[in-house]
Amino acid sequence: MKILFTGGGTGGHIFPIVAIAREIRRIYAKKDLEFHYIGPKDEFGQILLSQEDFQINTITTGKIRNYFSFENLTDILFKIPLSFIQSFFLIAKINPDLVFGKGGPGAVPVLFWAKIFKISIFIHESDAVPGRSNQIASKWAKKIFVSFPKTEYFNLDKVVISGNQIRKELLEGDISTAKNLFNLTLEKPVIMFCGGSQGAEAINDFVLRTLNDLLKDYEIIHITGMQNYKENLAESGVVIDKNLEKYYHSVAFLDEEKLKHVYKASNLVISRAGASAIFEIAALGKPSIIVPLPTSAQNHQAKNAYAYAAEGAAIVVEQDNLVQHFFLEKLQTIFAEQGTLQKMSEEALRFSKPFAAKTIAREILEFLML
Fold this sequence. Notes:
With 370 residues, this protein is of the alpha/beta class. It folds into two domains: 2-166 and 354-368, Rossmann fold (3-Layer(aba) Sandwich); 169-351, Rossmann fold, CATH 3.40.50.2000. It is 46% helix and 16% strand. The chain contains 14 helices and 13 strands. The protein has helices at residues 11-27, 43-51, 70-94, 107-116, 132-137, 175-182, 200-217, 229-239, 256-265, 275-283, 300-309, 324-336, 340-351, 356-368, and strands at residues 2-6, 34-40, 54-59, 98-101, 120-125, 143-146, 159-161, 190-194, 219-223, 248-251, 268-271, 288-290, 314-316. A seven-stranded parallel beta sheet has the order 3-2-1-4-5-6-7, sandwiched between helices. A six-stranded parallel beta sheet has the order 10-9-8-11-12-13, sandwiched between helices. Helix 3 (70-94) crosses helix 4 (107-116). The longest helix is centred in the first third of the chain and has 25 residues, at 70-94. The protein is globular. The model has no long low-confidence stretch (mean pLDDT 91).
């Protein structure tokens, strides 16, 4: 049994694929199961997938931007045609029983040839508004799994509301372990700031501008992103009040094993509005302030954020409103009003669908075993 996964090159594509693969293996114990992946070259993603025993193939990918760029020309003339040629040979070689698409420009050529070869296609859309790739692929797919109930565009006859796949191991965190790992004092409410794989710089800059005022009332775990860590560490060392230093914990990146403990210890999470982040936060029942990335494709992060906030689980703060006094006032309101955190936590859990990966895994296996 060969299942081929395809998608873009960000964590928002790879983490859900890992979650689904783990659930398939839990349900289907036979040895005749192979997982394959075709997508853009991404060192981080390749490490994660190789740990899950995927056979990985990379292709050149290009995209068509909604603004003028000379890169559009090179992508249209060279990269996109090459991706179709590479995908043709890989699909012919692997000959999978089913192809699962997670969106992103790397998925389109793979799914195109799956359609031509009459291989069954399932896709998943994480966001409230589908990306261009999934809009195209939805016409070829037998089933379309969605995270948000009011996802735009798709043919409802094909849609299954599954939620977004999270790695259920993230639910197994421990506060004592987090305290030991990061030398937390736990003397104040713990807030985790995370900018995601894109757009971390604006959140990092805000944290640094507001650092000492934040640390007066809160203990901060700050995930800066790999590219920004050294610069952030140097700048925070200059601006921080030495008497408050023990309340600030800056890290470049957290793997799954450490992230689950940080989530558990956090009283509030400040995050971008990628679907993976939102559904992880929701599954853990964590109150949150969501800061959508203003440059996200089709403004999908804003739509994700407001769809989630409408449930009462989070507050949305636009990036332009990351202003010190405004933001601190929001924090004070959340922590001061009795029952606010508890209500946000309850609504987050109500919104979450922690068994999304299992739902999709069962649908895949039932289809293949008919």
